[in-house]
Amino acid sequence: MAHPQPVSPPLPLLQVQGIEMRFGALKVLDQLDFSVGANEAVGIVGPNGAGKTTLLNVLAGAHAPSQGTVWFRGVDVSAWNAADRCRSGIARTHQVPRPFLGMTVFENVLTAATHGAGMHTRDAGDRAMHALRLCGMEALVNRRAETLGLLGRKRLELVRALATGPTVLLLDEIGGGLTDAEASELVDMVRTIRSRQIAIVWIEHLVHVLLQVAARLVCMDGGRVIASGDPHEVLSDATVVEAYLGGVAA
Ligand SMILES: Nc1ncnc2c1ncn2[C@@H]1O[C@H](COP(=O)(O)OP(=O)(O)OP(=O)(O)O)[C@@H](O)[C@H]1O
């Protein structure tokens, strides 16, 4: 009789293990472990200074940690820089959108596809238009980025990240400064992106916005993960309530 083969759990898509990140004497990430699975949507919350953006920078290759390993699709990418990681499928947005202000919306997205993803101009043009259409920004292609308001710049930031062809998208507080109605538009865009089987890691202080997308919530404090799991369970965890919610349950 054939014996059943042991089934190994799927490898995480993107994973960090034992990460320590210091800025001089300040230890910002402390033996941190974190992972996101293929197609997963993970939200990250935590008090100011918890190390959330620093973690995103380590995942994206913008910071080289003093210790620890970063794995992407089972490959050790710890020594890869941000450009190499972007080309391999790790895209990110910044807390403050950074479009090329003098360029049009289309040129901004095209540049993401050519420089971020390393595509040739013709393929990059198709990729850029596809990303713009997917996110409902095709009517704005000829607008100069400097004429866009905050929501428009945030939407453009998302489209630029999408145009690099990511497998995982790292979002840093894209909801900040928006009204609830504007944040809903971003949520719709992120959901559309999710529907293309792109994993999401989203840092956000607007928890009610984050919960519309995140299937798992991670709470960080003091450079460590203090809770991870079902969002509502994490938000009622006593350690999270104390560290993040000022002692008052969400
Ligand atoms: N480049 C840097 N040089 C020195 N210190 C830094 C640097 N980047 C971050 N820090 C410090 O590291 C700590 C963590 O910062 P980080 O931005 O990762 O926190 P965060 O959890 O994202 O906070 P917030 O919610 O306020 O954005 C803070 O004390 C910050 O001042």
UniProtKB/TrEMBL annotation:
Protein name (database record): Branched-chain amino acid transport system ATP-binding protein
Output one GO MF annotation. Answer: ATP hydrolysis activity
**Gene Ontology CC terms:** plasma membrane
InterPro entries documented for this protein? AAA+_ATPase, ABC_AA/LPS_Transport, ABC_transporter-like_ATP-bd, BCA_ABC_TP_C, P-loop_NTPase
Q: Which SUPFAM superfamilies match?
A: P-loop containing nucleoside triphosphate hydrolases
Coiled coil start-end: none
User: Is DNA-binding included in the keywords of this UniProt record?
Assistant: no
Per UniProt, residues of the ABC transporter domain are 14-247
Identify the keywords attached in UniProt to this record, alphabetized: ATP-binding, Cell membrane, Membrane, Nucleotide-binding, Transport
Determine the domain of life of the protein's source: Bacteria
